[in-house]
Amino acid sequence: MKSLGCALGAALFSVLMINQPALAEEPTPGYNTKIPEGLLTPDKYPTRVGDIEFFDGIPKPATAEALYNHLDYIRGVQTFLNGMPAASMEAIRRSQVVDGKTQSNRILIFDDLMDSNPLFLTGNTDTVYLSTILDLKADGPTVIEVPPGTGPGTVNDAFFRFVVDTGPPGPDAGKGGKYLILPPDYDGDLDPSVGGMEAEVDGETYFVAKSPSWVNWYIARGFLKDGKPEFSSKLFRDGIKVYPLSQKDNPPEMVFENGSRQPINTIHSTDFNFFKELNSVIQREPVGMLDPELRGLFASIGIEKDKPFAPDLRMKNILIKAAEVGNATARTLLWYERNPDDFLYDGSYWKIGFPGGNYQFLREDGKGGRDLDGRTEFFYFATVNTPAMTKKLVGKGSQYAWGALDANGDYLDGSKTYKLNLPKDPPAKKFTSIVLYDPQTRSQLQTDQPFPSYNSEKHKDKVKYNEDGSLDLYFGPEPPEGFEDNWIQTVPGKGFFTILRLYSPTEAWFDKTWRPGDIEPVE
């Protein structure tokens, strides 16, 4: 034991001797010991906020004021970027308010298709849209009756999250059925997962889904028949029913309003009013709709449940600037992608229609967290959130690609002429379409053509094909001679972008054996 004690003592002495230089370092001035430099704050240094000054690590009053202003500004920008799904849904809800309220049995239907008059984020010209707002707080559990043969439909909550699909990608698989949407305060025996479940309620079979919000949006699309919308228009008007479950024995009469050619605005603001729109959502919806992290972010700029949003002049001026930069940031994310995974092909500027390829905007199934930039990018230019857009559903559903840059990586200029080649046999059982959009409104480009688009079914007997069966489309202010029917008009002095849609895509789209040409400038 004595020899062991001697050995331990010798070892300890050795350690102390080895570390003696460190123990002997000169103390930091004002301290008894050496303080690591990384722990100390200099008295003054330059930043993006300006020169900031401290007394022994204590911010001077002017520095504290500048940094609080900067913090409010940062959180204003982040609120704009992260609150966009809610503000976008609120704008859609407001577009369907009649006499101060929405009614689920009041349906907006585009009997004659969507033209360029409505302001609607990247709406298409190729399907009959049907749209209604569900108010689960007023109506309680709500039924949607979907007739057989409809196109894809989706219910999204007030934060634009997926609740359930209807039609071919939904549990009815295109055969039709009754859907029951439960409100957030439902506490009965039904416990559906996201996407719904089949269950019997009061002796009837429903596809049941539960939403975390009071307000929900139901949108469905009907396909053209022989290139015309009449079939789906009639199918919706005769077959769609929406009513509270409590009124199933005597449901209210359906009211249909034609939205075609109407100057409807469904798009959120990009100025200070954005924050007012977001506040409306926060005040109306249950606290549990959003997680504490997001609620805390919004509350940090004064948007908090059951409290008035009343920023003083200082804060309002900060939020005005925050909205300007938030808007500019969203546009940058949209046009200049820096995530290589969001491009469809190597060496091409075609981008996938759903940034990140995950309807929850999760990176690597959540290991990489939430793709915040992808979520902002998507909701700045699009609506409808469904896993059907991200899954490989051969022969059903729809797929998208969008082009905002030409083959040289330059933005598209309406003063110039471009050519897009679509190879023979596009991989879509239903149809393929190309629509041009306005970069300001992200809605259809308004020109002398009310439908700024090409549709492979509607126009198959009008366009001129190449000898190899491929098709050249031209975008420009004037039609190329001999290709007037292959031309979509643009506006000099304005930009544009385009979306390629494939309905009921085939395997050749997913394995990329078919791919569109790049958008080529024509000299």
Shape: globular
In angstroms, what is the radius of gyration?
A: 29 Å
Number of extended strands: 24
Q: Tell me the β content.
A: 15-25%
Q: Count the helices. How many? A: 11
- Strand line-up across the major sheet: 8-7-12-5-4-14
Distance between the termini: 95 Å
Largest sheet: 6 strands, mixed
| Uncertain residue ranges | none
What structural category characterises the helix and strand content?
alpha+beta
Mean pLDDT: 94
Helix content: 10-25%
Description:
The protein has eleven helices and 24 strands. The protein is α+β, with helices and mostly antiparallel strands and 523 residues long. A six-stranded mixed beta sheet has the order 8-7-12-5-4-14. Strand 10 and strand 11 form a beta hairpin. The chain is globular.
What is the secondary structure topology, with strand pairs?
Blueprint: H1 2-18, H2 20-23, E1 44-47, E2 50-55, E3 58-59, H3 61-82, H4 84-95, E4 106-109, E5 128-135, H5 136-139, E6 142-146, E7 153-156, E8 162-166, E9 177-182, E10 197-201, E11 204-210, E12 215-222, H6 230-239, E13 241-244, E14 255-258, H7 273-284, H8 292-299, H9 313-335, E15 351-352, H10 372-381, E16 398-403, E17 412-413, E18 417-422, E19 428-437, E20 453-455, E21 471-476, E22 487-489, E23 495-505, H11 507-510, E24 520-522
Parallel strand pairs: 4-14, 9-11, 21-22
Antiparallel strand pairs: 1-2, 2-3, 4-5, 5-12, 6-9, 6-13, 7-8, 7-12, 10-11, 15-16, 16-23, 17-23, 18-21, 18-24, 19-20, 19-23
Helix pairs in contact: 3-9, 4-7, 9-10
